[in-house]
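This part of the workshop introduces the protein records we will be handling. A record pairs a protein's sequence with a compact description of its fold. Backbone structure tokens are a discrete shorthand for how the chain folds in space. The question running through the whole workshop is how a given chain folds. The record below serves as our worked example for the rest of this section.
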Amino acid sequence: MYDFAFQKPASVADAVKALGTEDAKALAGGQTFIPVLKQRLNKPATVVDLGKVGLTGITVAGDTIKIGAMTTHHAISTNADIKAKIPGLADMASWIGDIQVRHRGTMGGSLANNDPSACYPSAVLALDATIKTDRRTISAKDFFQGMFTTALEPNEIITEITFPIPEKSAYEKFRNPASRYAVVGVFVAKTKAGVRVAITGAGQGGVFRHDAFEKALTANFAPDAIAGITTPADGLNGDIHASAPYRAHLIGVMAKRAVAAAK
């Protein structure tokens, strides 16, 4: 690494102030940011640790579940309320990385980074969640703006994510065997208003919804309802792990598995 100033504020207000200084970056769980620092791909003048600002916790509020931005993957995967009310989200968190990553990585950090192969963006988009920051509330459809790009301002901090509780949910992903990132991940949410399906790992612009699957599954929530629907390979990622046509195929496979597993 190299020299940088390190601050550990005790409140959100102090963290926002620290991030307002020139070339400052926030540190959440550090599962992406620390490797980036080690590789010198990012050289901030100041690193602001969010670990003590009080953004952890999971609460049920009416027909929603609210999750603090610094809540770890492990806490989400083992929470009784999430397992009972949004099982797809609990399953998702349990498959992220390995046990060390799950005890350090956070939902807010993942969403702010918006890696195109990250899992949480598909849950946020499929469940139509809202992202609360230190200054505003952002809808899922407005938050994700492309690969590693979000609606967040430079010194804006995610504080909480609110998930409406669906009738059924499930997440299935085809995992990279080394990183366990999603080569393709599909989150399916059945709600009173219809079915929402979000895809991660496949799109060049990051997470996206699958309109054809949603229409078919709203009419008939069964794996066979989407068996004949193909996903165009145009605009999908192609790399050493999977070609664009193979990812298009995987979208259908993972979607059918998610529908079958939904509860």
